[in-house]
Structure formats: structure tokens, C-alpha cells
């Protein structure tokens, strides 16, 4: 299958782009393959300066092998490495370290002619050796990389020569190009020498910025890479500070001590600053839901009737209206409505109905036998912990309201503030009862393998459902929307019926920048695309 034909298939998978006028401000000219065209120095964007961003928690790893990349560390991580391809701001798959790509007629062989003349930050030449090493390392189950699930369909990686990589698949994987081929490439000799643990703190990539300093729980500092194959970035430095409190991030923006935020402010501040001419506000529909994964293996949550009752007993529209200033929409599926080819609007919906919730709990055998307001069954209280990122002022009020509403139906929960790294690790290991997270889709494919498959890299709900696994695998075995759509309709219906997680809402991801920061562009999917193009940003001083 030619590159062109496959791209046509991908277009059918792409999401409609919802752009605000403020999304593109004086963006530099970009060639088709994403390379910046040289402009005369007298008319081009100004060179220099430090872009100061803020995240709400630390960059606990800079490894390309992360399965889920928390929002706060994306601005740094995405500048250090490049993949063979990436998804650009218009949702098109574009070659990066690859010059192009070709997919065989049977969909089992991907051929990537590689870009020559690319340098790593340590001066080493980029070749196929680095591609093979990276894929072989991160797809090896013994290395326990969270990204391993995305690479599980790979049979082998071959180097035809120094600048031609061939990836052979065991079976067709419709999502590989948009999930697997974006894996960021490491410098093979350096990684082999220092190992993954050290590499995660001191990476060497081909990206537009290189690591200068990383001070855990304080800041990450990157410097422009002069020899980047796309050309030197306009900025000299990128600094991402850890500022857990949303109110403090707002103060830093308004005082001029920061230029932007990698995590939304409090909703009232987002709305207020969006109307302040000192700032540029970029807002988009969310592709990934805010949700509460439930540990389906613990006695309190192993019965789907209990999980369904939690849906019926939670007023999600009230959360949006009272806590999010209306800047979200209730999630009636694991897929956002901005996936027009795959979103299923006909799934039965959970509305707020406490009576229905209590009927289900009674039916499941959970009864308040001692009159203390909490239901019991076989000596177990219907009580569990919900973990929230420490200091997360967006999530804590949501769980506090859920705590009140669920108490009314006899369910007791405890809010536990926990470092984000510990939440992700604990959920992957099925060591936590539940947690509130924001799960952003970084690709243009509806595949839910990461979280909803029993072998998913982020199987946070700890589910093992052979029928759902089979449907997910079947959905990946076809390329066309016509073949995949009925499968994903069934997947969505099953996920909502089984309720392994509480899908809360799809928020409008706002990003606020000082108005002097220029060059941003943003599509309708998530913040992934925003941070990928920092090499095009610049600071326009008055």
C-alpha cells in the first residue's frame, strides 16, 4: 500500500479540527514535511529568550518508554526526542526522523527511509541502529516499559541499511502508525551504556531542545539544540517550573513571572484571563475524558452493579455547572463526540438518579445493617479510597462533591492526596482502590487498548474481560472506518455497561499564555500537538 493510499485511510480516522481564531498567531512558514523554511533575518521572528512554563507536578521521568505522559511534563519531554513520525496540528501523520513511510498491501510491513544528517545531542549520527535498539528495548516485556502494549504486535525490526528501517508486524494493527510509530528514538550507544534508570534522568535525543538541568520537584531547564535538523529553535531556553497550586500559577502569570501553564488554572481564572488582553487564551474540545478508574478486583467494586450505581448516584452535570463554570460536557462514552466517525451517541446514558443507584446496591447485596449510613456485605463496608494528585485544586473539589453524593446512597469514600507518580504506579500495579485522572488521547485513533484491555499498558481499572479484549483486538485488525465503526460502537456500549471506570466529562482544555508568546497552533484533540511545536514559538518583546 502506498504512502498516499494509507494517508487517505488515516484521513477517514482523523478528527474534525475545531480551531479558534486565537489559535494561530503569526505562525512561521512551515514546509510540508514540517521543516521551517528560512526567512530573512530582518523579517523573521525574533531569536532568543526563555519561555517559562509551569506544571502542577514534577517530571518524574524523561523516558520515551512512558505509557501515559502526564500533562505537566509534556512540554519538556516532547522537545528532547523525535519519533519516526508524529501527528501534526492538523491531525495528519507527518514524517520526522523518517523521510517517508510505506505500508505493504497486507498491512504487515512498514518501511521507513530515514532522514540523513540528523544529530543526537551528544553529536552522534542518527541511523537505523538507533531505531532498532529503541523498539527492541521498549517492546521487550522484561524491561517493563509502560509503552510495551502499543508495541506488542511487532514481530521484528530490521535495518536494510543505515538509513532504511523495516518494522514487521505479527498481525495488522490499525493504530500502529499513530501510536507505535511515534515512539521517540534514543541514542543507542548511550542508552546501552547507562541503562534506562539513568537515561530517564539524563536523556540524549535528537529533539529541538537538550536537557541542561533537572531539579526534582523544582524545575526542568532545556536549551536550544543548535544542530537540530529542522533548524535552531527561535527560543534560547525552555524552563518548566513545578507549581502545584493553581492559584499560585495564576499569580505568576499576572505578575509576569511566568509565560504560560502546562496545566489549566482554576476555571474561574481561565475564564477571567481569557478576556484579558494581556494574555492569549487557546481553548479546545477535549478528546480524552476526566475519569475515575475503579479497581475492579477489590470486593467493594468487583460487581458491575455497584459500579453502575456510582454512575447513577453522581450528578456529573452539577460538577460541570458548579465547579467547572460550564466548561465541559458530560461523558456518555469513553470516546469524545469530536471523534465523528466512531462516537456512538445511542449508548444508554447514566443520568443522576439516586433511587436507581440504591436499587442496584440493594440488588447486589449491599445493605446498611447497623444504621451508620454505610452499606455492608459479608463483613465488608462499602468504603474505598479515591486518590487525587496532591494539591490538585481542580480535582479535589470534584471528589469532595462525589463524596457527599455517594454518601447519600450509602457509599463511603476517602479522598487521599497522593503524588501523581505514585498514583500512576499504584494504579498500574492494582494497588489502589480508585483515582481521579485526566486521560488525554494523543492520537487520532479510537483504540482503547491502553486502558481497557487486560494487557493494556495503563489497565488502571485492573479489568480482565475476554470478550472486551477480543473486540479491541478485532477493531485493530481492520483499516477502514466502515469495517471498524460497528466494532467500536459495541466496544463503547460494553465499556459503559461494565463501568470499569466512571467517565466524568470532556473538558475544554484551556491554555493561557502571555500575549508576547507567539507562534502557537492548536487542534481540537488535546495539548499533545500544542507542545510538539515549541520549536516554532518565539517571544515578541515590546
Please provide a written account of the structure.
With 542 residues, this protein is α+β, with helices and mostly antiparallel strands. The chain is built from 16 helices and 22 strands. A five-stranded mixed sheet has the order 8-9-10-1-11, covered by helices on one side. Helix 8 (304-312) packs antiparallel against helix 10 (354-363) and helix 14 (466-476) runs antiparallel to helix 15 (481-498). The chain starts with a helix and ends with a strand.
Tag the structure with descriptive keywords:
542 residues; alpha+beta; Dipeptide-binding Protein, domain 3; 28% helix; SBP_5; single chain; 16 helices; D-Maltodextrin-Binding Protein, domain 2
The termini sit apart by 51 Å
Indicate the CATH topology of the largest domain. Answer: D-Maltodextrin-Binding Protein, domain 2
The CATH H-level superfamily of the largest domain is Periplasmic binding protein-like II
Number of domains as seen in the coordinates? 2
Q: Summarize the amount of helix as a percent range.
A: 25-40%
**Spatial strand order of the main sheet:** 8-9-10-1-11
Apparent shape: globular
What is the CATH C level class of the largest domain, in words? Alpha Beta
The major pleated sheet works out as:
5 strands, mixed
CATH architecture of the largest domain: 3-Layer(aba) Sandwich
Strand content: 15-25%
Output mean pLDDT: 88
Q: Output the radius of gyration.
A: 23 Å
Per DSSP, the total helix count is 16
Number of DSSP E strands: 22
Structural class: alpha+beta
* Unreliable residue stretches: 1-41
Amino acid at each position: 500500500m502506498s504512502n498516499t493510499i494509507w494517508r487517505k485511510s488515516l484521513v477517514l480516522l482523523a478528527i474534525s479540527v475545531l480551531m479558534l481564531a486565537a489559535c494561530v498567531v503569526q505562525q512561521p512558514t512551515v514546509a510540508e514535511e514540517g521543516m521551517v523554511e528560512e526567512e530573512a533575518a530582518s523579517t523573521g521572528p525574533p531569536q532568543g529568550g526563555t519561555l517559562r512554563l509551569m506544571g502542577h507536578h514534577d517530571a518524574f521521568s524523561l523516558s520515551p518508554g512512558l505509557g501515559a505522559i502526564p500533562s505537566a511534563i509534556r512540554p519538556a519531554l516532547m522537545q528532547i526526542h523525535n519519533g519516526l513520525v508524529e501527528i501534526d496540528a492538523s491531525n495528519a501523520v507527518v514524517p520526522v526522523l523518517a523521510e517517508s513511510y510505506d505500508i505493504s498491501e497486507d498491512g504487515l510491513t512498514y518501511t521507513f527511509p530515514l532522514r540523513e544528517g540528523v544529530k543526537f545531542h551528544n553529536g552522534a549520527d542518527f541511523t537505523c541502529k538507533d531505531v532498532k535498539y529503541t523498539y527492541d528495548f521498549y517492546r521487550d516485556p522484561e524491561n517493563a516499559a509502560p509503552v510495551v502494549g502499543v508495541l506488542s504486535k511487532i514481530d521484528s525490526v530490521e535495518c536494510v541499511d543505515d538509513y532504511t528501517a523495516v518494522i514487521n508486524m505479527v498481525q495488522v494493527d490499525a493504530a500502529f502508525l499513530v501510536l507505535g510509530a511515534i515512539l521517540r528514538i534514543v541514542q543507542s550507544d548511550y542508552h546501552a551504556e547507562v541503562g534506562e534508570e539513568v537515561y530517564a534522568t539524563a536523556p540524549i535525543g535528537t529533539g529541538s531542545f537538550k536537557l541542561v538541568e533537572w531539579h526534582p520537584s523544582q524545575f526542568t531547564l532545556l536549551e536550544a539544540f543548535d544542530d537540530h535538523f529542522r533548524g535552531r529553535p527561535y527560543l534560547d531556553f525552555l524552563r518548566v517550573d513545578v507549581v502545584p497550586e493553581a492559584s499560585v500559577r495564576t499569580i505568576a502569570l499576572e505578575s509576569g513571572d511566568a509565560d504560560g501553564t502546562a496545566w489549566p488554572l482554576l476555571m474561574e481564572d481561565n475564564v477571567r484571563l481569557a478576556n484579558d488582553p494581556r494574555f492569549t487564551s487557546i481553548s479546545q474540545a477535549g478528546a480524552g475524558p476526566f475519569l475515575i478508574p475503579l479497581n475492579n478486583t477489590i470486593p467493594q467494586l468487583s460487581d458491575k452493579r455497584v459500579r453502575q450505581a456510582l454512575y447513577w448516584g453522581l450528578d456529573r452535570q452539577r460538577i460541570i455547572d458548579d465547579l467547572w463554570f460550564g466548561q465541559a460536557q458530560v461523558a456518555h462514552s469513553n470516546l469524545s463526540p469530536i471523534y465523528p466517525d466512531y462516537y456512538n451517541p445511542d449508548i444508554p446514558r447514566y443520568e443522576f438518579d439516586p433511587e436507581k443507584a440504591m436499587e442496584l446496591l440493594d440488588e447486589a447485596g449491599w445493605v446498611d445493617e447497623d444504621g451508620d449510613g454505610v452499606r455492608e456485605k459479608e463483613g465488608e463496608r462499602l468504603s474505598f479510597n479515591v486518590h487525587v494528585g496532591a494539591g490538585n485544586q481542580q480535582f479535589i473539589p470534584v471528589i469532595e462533591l462525589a463524596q457527599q453524593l455517594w454518601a447519600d446512597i450509602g457509599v463511603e469514600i476517602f479522598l487521599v492526596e497522593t503524588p501523581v507518580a505514585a498514583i500512576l504506579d499504584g494504579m498500574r500495579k492494582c494497588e489502589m482502590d480508585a483515582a481521579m485522572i485526566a486521560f488525554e488521547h494523543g492520537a487520532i485513533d479510537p483504540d482503547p487498548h491502553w486502558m481497557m484491555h487486560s494487557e493494556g499498558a495503563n489497565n488502571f481499572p485492573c479489568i480482565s474481560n475476554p470478550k472486551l479484549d477480543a473486540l479491541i483486538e478485532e477493531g485493530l485488525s481492520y483499516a477502514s472506518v466502515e469495517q471498524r465503526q460497528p466494532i467500536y460502537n459495541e466496544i463503547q456500549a460494553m465499556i459503559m455497561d461494565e463501568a470499569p471506570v466512571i467517565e466524568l466529562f470532556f473538558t475544554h482544555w484551556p491554555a493561557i499564555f502571555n500575549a508576547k508568546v507567539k507562534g502557537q497552533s492548536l487542534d481540537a484533540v488535546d495539548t499533545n500537538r500544542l507542545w510538539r511545536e515549541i520549536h516554532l514559538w518565539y517571544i515578541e518583546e515590546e
